[in-house]
Design goal:
Helices cover 24% and strands 36% of the residues. The strands form 3 sheets. Strands 5, 6, 8, 9, 11, 12, 14, 15, 17, 18, 20, 22 and 24 form a 13-stranded mixed sheet that branches. It folds into 2 domains: 288 residues, no CATH class; 55 residues, no CATH class. It is of the alpha/beta class. The radius of gyration is 22 Å and the shape is globular.
């Protein structure tokens, strides 16, 4: 029986505009040592990175496909192109970027956001970063913001120290896949005591049909430094599979603070199998603000490892699953030191037969005494065809700890809709207002342009729900 590769999708406007494919190199489909060596050669990488890739490839071939989450049986990795190099060199001025690629990012609002409110921008198109900039005042303070390929060559000591130490190839099959074929991504280093006043932002756009995107993001925030990093992702709709298996490694040192905001808005032929982790030292803080839209399947669980006393983690997430989508998302927190604190606020919406699954892990080690954690999961189901599940796992190895967990699953109140309609508001708009109110705690945590994007996506998703 032929595998199903096409699922229903709404018209997503600017997100589904496809450019003509123009590339200078496109690897063969599938995975082999020869393909890995060719990718590394195209990048002119040092031997130590090639060795890491080949090591990860061996692990990938030995690992089974995960069976505990979403159904991945239709995913054919051997039919995916793992590296597509666009026909453009990296530029530091938008005027130098080819018109069609520049227009794609202009439609997504990236150059405008850079002009108004950002300290630096990176824009990746398929497998390579095509635009990168950072304000001179940050360079003067020793801040490094560049693409990962450049970091491998220009900051090898830092990359060697941290690269794939939080996310190891042996962790799971798609971490190993990432280690073998990673390409593009962002490298940020903030020196001790430096506070970056305006956010840095990277945007990852996959245009190539039947391809994968495997960007690697590495951020090191040194002692008492502060950073807000924003990441966006999107891809147009195709009738064949695309795959996203990126990796994000965040290192938050003593007294440092990092906010990591992201909206993942892939089209519904995408398997989104992303891995994100942060490790936080004493008195440091990691904040995750996460929105998961689009994709046929998602498996995404940002993880915080609180390894220093008084380290803190906050996770705020929203997932919207519509027809043909299985979004298995959540977060993991490991309390590995005393007096650590974590807060999890997760919301999900399902409609049109979509399946939203919250999967969370809260783990406290023996020495994590006097730690506190609060987990709150809320799910909203918009019709009788959709599904919402929660699977919170709590592992506690000591008794001197304060943990609270609350979960709610419900539907939109008919009384609330009637009340709004009695005030002259049409039924569809009444339902949209209630949904926007449900996600408002998430929206207010997002940067302005992403809050607007979130509201626009909700409006698109709600079309046709009523009646």
């Amino acid at each position: 029986m032929a595998k199903k590769t096409q699922v229903s999708d709404i018209d997503r406007g600017i997100y589904d505009i496809v450019n003509e494919e123009r590339h200078v190199y496109r690897s063969d489909k599938g995975l082999s040592e020869a393909i890995i060596r060719e990718i590394s050669k195209e990048k002119n990488e040092p031997d130590w990175m090639l060795e890491k890739r080949l090591h990860a490839l061996k692990i990938y071939k030995s690992k089974p496909v995960p069976m505990w989450g979403a159904d991945l049986s239709d995913l054919d990795v051997e039919n995916i192109v793992h590296y597509v190099k666009p026909d453009v060199e990296q530029q530091h001025s938008w005027d130098e970027v080819p018109d069609d690629i520049k227009e794609t990012f202009e439609r997504l609002g990236i150059p405008e956001a850079e002009r108004k409110s950002l300290s630096g921008v990176g824009a990746q198109y398929d497998s390579e970063v095509v635009y990168h900039s950072i304000k001179q005042e940050l360079i003067d303070q020793g801040v490094v913001y560049t693409d990962m390929e450049s970091a491998v060559k220009e900051y090898p000591d830092i990359v060697k120290e941290y690269f794939m130490t939080l996310i190891r190839p042996q962790d799971h099959k798609f971490a190993a896949l990432h280690g073998a074929v990673w390409s593009g991504g962002s490298f940020v280093y903030v020196p001790e005591g430096v506070e970056v006043d305006f956010p840095l932002q990277s945007y990852f756009r996959l245009n190539a049909k039947g391809a994968g995107q495997f960007e690697h993001t590495m951020i090191v925030v040194e002692k008492n430094a502060k950073l807000h990093f924003i990441e966006g992702c999107s891809a147009p709709k195709y009738s064949v599979q695309n795959l996203h298996a990126g990796a994000v490694e965040l290192f938050v040192k003593e007294g440092a603070e990092l906010r990591y905001s992201t909206i993942e808005n892939w089209s519904r032929n995408m398997y989104n199998l992303n891995t994100k982790r942060a490790v936080v030292d004493a008195h440091g803080k990691i904040e995750w603000v996460s929105g998961s839209f689009g994709s046929k399947v998602s498996m995404l669980y940002p993880m915080s490892i609180l390894r220093g006393e008084h380290a803190r983690s906050e996770f705020t997430g929203i997932t919207f699953a519509a027809e043909g989508q299985y979004l298995d998302t959540g977060t993991k927190v490991v309390h590995a030191a005393p007096y650590t604190t974590s807060i999890v606020n997760s919301k999900s919406i399902s409609k049109g037969g979509g399946h939203a699954f919250y999967r969370g892990l809260l783990k406290a080690s023996k020495n994590a005494h006097h730690s506190k954690s609060t987990v709150n999961c809320e799910s909203l189901i918009l019709d009788n065809k959709s599904v919402s599940d929660t699977l919170p796992i709590i592992e506690v190895a000591n008794s001197n700890i304060d943990i609270g967990h609350e979960a709610k699953i419900g539907r939109i109140s008919d009384d609330a809709i009637f009340y709004l309609m009695s005030r002259g508001i049409p039924e569809a708009e009444a339902k949209a207002m209630i949904v926007r109110g449900f996600v408002e705690p998430i929206t207010k945590e997002l940067p302005l342009e992403y809050a607007v994007e979130l509201n626009n996506l909700i409006t698109l998703e709600l079309e046709g729900v009523v009646g």
